[in-house]
Amino acid sequence: MKYDKMILGNDFSVTMDCNVTQTNNNVIVVGTSGCGKSMSITETNLLYTEETSVVASFAKRARVEKYIRLFANRGYEVIDLNFANPLHSAMGYDPMDYITSYDDISFLARAIVSMDDRGKLGKVDPYWDQTAISLLSALIAHEVILKDKATMKDVIDLFHRLKITSLMEVVTTSLDADFDELEKRDFYSYVVTMWKTFKACPLRTALCVLSSLSAIIDTAFCGECINILKKKEKIDFEKISEKRVAVFITTSAVNPALNVFVNVFYSQMFKELFEVREKNAEVGIPIRIICDDFACGAKIYNFHEYISICREERISITVMLQSESQLQSIYGEYEAQTILNNADTYVYMGGNDVRTAEHIAKRAGKTIFEILYMPVGKEVIFRRGESGPILVDRYDLLNDKKYLSVFS
Fold first, then answer.
1. DSSP code string of 3-29
2. Which of 25, 180, 357, 374 has the fewest CB atoms in 10 Å of its CB?
3. Per-residue pLDDT tens for 63-108?
């Protein structure tokens, strides 16, 4: 099997063959806005990717179009998912396409509910989230059971039909008759159990859960995103594992609400890729996932677990951050530290965050002053197994001969 190389700085690159390096290929890149993360790390490594399937996100459409042409010329199957402008996306995505079991339903419901960050800020009772997951699971299962090809739009429409009609303490809803029919078929079924969990709530709690879930769904599946759901041609995650595929994801730098749907996509993509690899451990090619502006979106459900096991599935993840505090604000201290601990490569490109600088200074054996005032264009690389930090210049892509020959 052929492997690409991973370029981290001028005169510093390593093979992506983990059997040779004995390390994983996960990379954390930290640097302030404008320090060159996208150009010197993301673009450079895309330029030298020829043997690996790749999933890369950009907030700038021009970069996506630039590399779509490059990978198409290399014989890759190119998938263009435009979440920033869904109407013009060449490819569609519907999370309901990957529902094959009740476990899949539960996962999708949890992934969607976890998009709401109020829980980690202490503004939502965790019980509400669990009940919201049960309610959403019931609605998804309802559509899967009753329709041959249920879509997320069907689930959203069903949710919008749901009204609490009770004026007493017992919860009654506009969908009770629908679920009563399903209960007649099978009293102990999954869908009935999930629905009864929601119905068992006190009236005030049910109203709060319904309101909370409404906010999540309206954000995750806003009007623009519905266009992605309606596309006839949908992404097939299994292809990414089987042959050379380049998936380019356009996110929005000015409308972060659209990025909530992007993170639902990432949550499900990781789950699907890992399940495909579990079934066919020795089949397929390496997969490289580059998450540009990683902390600008919502939380990717179970991400801290995926990054900890991806090496054995020949999947690597590159995460771009402006500071470590960004990661902690979304994932919390434990999960953020788990993510950091499971990247055998860490590239620091400078910044003004004192807490991050303190961490880098301690690891590098330098003063915080030296780190905070590190010259522009320099970077510090830490790799597990190296005897110490590596100080190099960031990669000069604009003077790369291969880059000039391709894009001149």
1. --EEEEETTEEEES-HHHH-S---EEE
2. 180
3. 999 999 999 999 999 999 999 888 899 999 999 999 999 999 999 9
Token pair of 100 as six digits: 């094959």
Q: How far apart are CA 45 and CA 350, in angstroms?
A: 20
Q: What is the mean pLDDT of the chain?
A: 91
What does the alpha-carbon distance between residue 323 and residue 371 come to, in Å, rounded to a whole number?
13
Please tell me the pTM assigned to this model: 0.91
d(CA 149, CA 303): 29
Cα dihedral across residues 379, 361, 327, 17: positive or negative: positive
- Least Cα distance to 235 among 211, 265, 199 occurs for 265
Q: Which among 191, 207, 96, 208 is positioned nearest to 134, based on CA atoms? A: 191
Beta carbons within 8 Å of 81's beta carbon, 6+ residues apart: 89, 90, 91, 93, 228, 235, 247, 248, 249, 250, 265
* DSSP annotation string for 244-311: -EEEEEE--SS-TTHHHHHHHHHHHHHHHHHHHHHHSTTSS--EEEEETTGGGS-PPTTHHHHHHH-G
Cα(371)–Cα(59) distance, integer angstroms: 28
204-217 pLDDT tens trace: 899 999 999 999 99
Report helix angle 102-113 to 203-220, nearest 10: 90
How far apart, in whole angstroms, are the C-alpha atoms of residue 305 and residue 315?
13
